[in-house]
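Exercise 7. Given the encoded structure of a 135-residue chain, write a plausible sequence.
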């Protein structure tokens, strides 16, 4: 148990460094899913470790979000009317929503973007789930 606590502490201390090194920030979704997965495997310590590991996976980095949002506005991407609340993890329909590639300068290659209920979102094209709301 002490070994697990030491590992968790080391990860918590190094997490900000790892997060800054990453290009993305799908932090909320990653942290939540990582914590749940970690808790299942390793109990409370696993939840901490999983949450930290999941938080470093991501989308548009914080320092690029405003510029990306302006890019999307300039592109005049039409907004898709979605009946439900737009939250990270929401699954968008497979038809009727148009997804766009994120320009390379934003450092995101695995996700696409769209506008839903006037909010710019990043979406995993395989699952159609919202991974980040870009404000």
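Solution.
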């Amino acid at each position: 148990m002490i070994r697990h606590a030491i590992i968790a502490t080391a990860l918590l201390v190094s997490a900000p460094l790892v997060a800054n090194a990453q290009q993305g920030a799908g932090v909320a979704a990653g942290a939540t899913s990582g914590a749940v997965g970690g808790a299942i495997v390793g109990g409370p310590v696993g939840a901490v470790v999983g949450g930290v590991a999941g938080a470093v996976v991501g989308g548009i980095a914080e320092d690029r979000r405003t510029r990306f949002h302006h890019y999307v506005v300039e592109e005049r991407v039409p907004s898709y009317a979605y009946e439900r609340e737009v939250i990270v993890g929401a699954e968008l329909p497979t038809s009727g929503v148009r997804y766009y590639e994120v320009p390379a300068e934003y450092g995101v290659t695995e996700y696409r973007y769209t506008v839903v209920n006037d909010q710019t979102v990043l979406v995993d094209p395989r699952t159609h789930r919202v991974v980040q709301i870009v404000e």
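Remark. The chain has two domains: 2-55, 62-134. Students should compare their own answers with the one above.
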